[in-house]
Amino acid sequence: MRIGFFQFSPFHGNKEKNIEIIINILKRGKADLIVFPELATSGYLIPDKNFLRKNAFKVPDSKEFEMLLKVVKKEKTGIVLGFPELKDGKFFNSALFILPDGKFGVYRKIHLFYKEKKFFKSGKNPDEGIFTYIGFKFGIIICFDWLFPEHLRYLAYKGIQVVLHPSNLILPWGQRAMIIRAIENRVFTLTANRVGEEKYRNEHLKFTGKSQLVSPDGRILMRANSGSEVLRIKEINPAEANRKLITPYNDIFEDLKTVQFKYSEGKTY
Ligand code: ACM
């Protein structure tokens, strides 16, 4: 299958413009699935709830969803897209997936980062981001979820072959950590990160780019640079993620032991 990411710098607080950009990429993409960054329709810094009221949308009852669904069906290109979601009067930092057959779903970010906690409710259900497409199994995490190996291990136990990772990475470790997450779970990971900077009052955030696709043996199959807008697409076979052996004797799931480590008497670490 042909899978890719679009790395860009969304216009802050301009949902219409960002959706126009996203739709144009879908038209140009020639891929089975394109992943866009976290909060790609709004930008990242949330000055106040009013910003969210203006920029969030509902799924499926919104014109934004209708527009995206239409183009996904027409272009036969699936989408995974970060956006601020309005659901039951609450805001979530969410990722929407839409597939060419019209199937869709929303994953709500579980591990909120920094001041996201002031504005978003956290998601509760990692299964929301799981879907099957062209015979393969995908799972979504959003940005800071990378820090929690348990989250990705859970997806791997569920048989996910490709972890999709819309991001607005700021800390310097996310891309490196996702290589380890790929190796330790023997899955593909695709991080669609954003570039650019945002400023608001005394807040100044710089996003690190370097969107990447990593194979189950930790090879970087493609990676963008840290500063520019780019669409990258590559052919992969997600079935490569089915092989959980590191050596003929070591299966990453079978070998996990629950052990009690004994520390030297009287010492705490
Ligand atoms: C992040 O979770 N946006 C760093």
Topology readout:
Layout (H helix, E strand, L loop, with lengths): L1 E6 L7 H15 L3 E3 L13 H7 L7 H13 L2 E10 L2 E9 L5 E5 L7 H4 L10 E4 L2 E5 L8 H9 L4 E5 L7 H12 L2 E5 L4 E4 L2 E4 L5 E3 L5 E4 L6 E6 L9 E3 L2 E2 L18
Parallel strand pairs: 1-2, 2-3, 7-8, 8-9
Antiparallel strand pairs: 1-14, 3-4, 4-5, 6-7, 9-12, 10-11, 12-13, 15-16
Helix pairs in contact: 1-3
The structure holds acetamide.
The site of acetamide has 7 residues, from loops.
In short:
By secondary structure, the protein is α/β, with parallel strands linked by helices.
Q: How would you sum up this structure, described in words?
A:
The chain is α/β, with parallel strands linked by helices and 269 residues long. The chain has a single domain, classed as Nitrilase/N-carbamoyl-D-aminoacid amidohydrolase (4-Layer Sandwich). It is 22% helix and 29% strand. A hairpin with a 2-residue loop joins strand 10 and strand 11. It is globular, with a radius of gyration of 19 Å. The site of acetamide has 7 residues, from loops.
